[in-house]
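Can't paste images in this forum, so I'm doing it all in text. The chain is below; anyone willing to post the predicted structure tokens underneath?
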Amino acid sequence: MKPVLIRGGRVIDPGNIDKIADILVDKGKIVAVESVAAGGCASLFDKYPDVDQINAQGKIVTPGLIDMHVHFREPGHEYKETIQSGCTAAAHGGFTAVCTMPNTSPVNDDQKTTEFVLRQAQKAKSARVCPVAAISKGMEGRSLCDYEILKRAGAVAVSDDGFPVVNSYLMRRALEDASRAGLLVMAHSEDLALASGGAMNEGPTAVRMGLPGIPNAAESITVMRDIALCELTRAPLHIMHVSTRESVRALQNAKDRGVPVTAETAPHYFILTDEAVEKYGTRAKMNPPLRSSVDRQAVRDGLSDGTIDVIATDHAPHSIVEKQAPFTRAPNGIIGLETSLGLSLKLVQDGLIGIKTLITLMSVNPARILGLENGLAVGSRADITMIDIEKSFTVNADHFQSQGRNTPFDGWTLKGRAVMTMVGGKIVFQDPVDKR
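Text version of the structure:
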């Protein structure tokens, strides 16, 4: 296989590089990064003419995007999503790596299931999969998994996502044991008693629609508890899918005290509010639910000031039939891998953050938090995303690579998308229009 030369893009690796440059990739690694001389002379092409070329002029070239939170339904619910379809969707969205949640059937709580996920990912030959195993056996919140074995099998973190660890003593032990094993705890922070019976955010929209509400406190109370346990143990903790202003405030205060906590949110929490439920129905149903405009602004501010470290998708595919159930019975979740970048670029277009901050939120920080290799330095693994921030497109869920169609963003026009995704030096997605 010939070396690949990515020519003339704006190469951005926040904190390290921001310049018009060529990148030479060979044998899965970045072997050269060299500025393009004034006038557009391709210096690396002069040195290495026998290469496959990718024209990156007018594009942004970044370290591969990483999604810390996806649900690929294999094993057990392949009719919703397989690891193959999920990885292909990820690559089309610009993601070179994804972290798969353990709420499969069987639950990923042992070596055998973790290794199965990794084997299926190898077969997919697309985006990398970093398995997140369960905190507790069967995700039942009763006894802890063997974290040393899970780490050796290839897990990068543990989570009971979809369920909180209700027992505070068990959560403390999870933080301590996972930290010793070198695994990150990713917390689904929810007070089940407060959320019980709720279907959407508690507020005026729920009243108008006659739907039972879920108060902000159902999230924030448990966020505060999990932060307290993180402060007690000094073990790293990652708070998932932050949606409320109270949670953002608690995270900000914790970080000011030096607590080793990080957090993520998803595009739907900084784009939509609970009023979207009236228009989109079950396509706008997720857990935690869409919140008020005040909460949305708090999440946006948290991304801007660094309180929230990561943009993840919480990609959660369901069948059309399941989402057609009455609102209170329909499953929670929307898909997001193929819309995340376009939606997140709205933060840049609105002037809330710069492009470097967006790359940090979607690539640099996820890699740092998980301890994954990342970056565009010479010698680094060639996991690379190329983005055309001027390219507008209309979301068409029927054309998604994901098996899921459950998105409220179908029909939206977005500006900016990935046009090339490279994993280990291999192009796993390239927009046909941009091929040269």
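The domain at 64-370 is CATH 3.20.20.140 (TIM Barrel). The chain has a mean pLDDT of 96.
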